């Protein structure tokens, strides 16, 4: 029994070390973008889209300040191919919204906390709150918006300082 255990341990070591070396030699060495996950755990980078709000397809549409913190909102409309891929995964949304927070005095990014978003339409109806996911230096979520409609994004936050703040930013979906 002792010989069998020793043989199995040696075999595991003999196979495991070369496999680990092979995996490290084929790694990205930090050059690839990190995987972006949607709220249901789907890998959005497989669709070729950076969801962290730093690519050129995002448009800044407004800011709001509350108790020393500035919220900056950006939005990206999904193209037809992305919408089709999302539909196959069971993910709904026509746009991806990102919100970035910064200290108004220092300009320092605030990237930790909990953010909830409600979208108010022109009829005054408000969606159920959606929790925004931490994504890089901001927070993001998918939303469904109709063309030619004015919306108000109502954000409730509890950032890393523990203070609850509310922000309101208008968006016209052209």
Task: Give a description of the structure.
By secondary structure, this protein is an alpha+beta fold. Helices cover 19% and strands 40% of the residues. Strands 1, 2, 3, 4, 5, 6, 7, 8 and 9 form a nine-stranded antiparallel sheet that branches. Strand 8 and strand 9 form a beta hairpin. The radius of gyration is 22 Å and the shape is globular. 22% of the residues are buried.
Provide a brief overview of the structure:
The protein is an alpha+beta fold and 174 residues long. It is 19% helix and 40% strand.
What attributes characterize this protein structure?
single chain, 174 residues, alpha+beta, Immunoglobulin-like, nine-stranded antiparallel β-sheet, 2 helices, globular
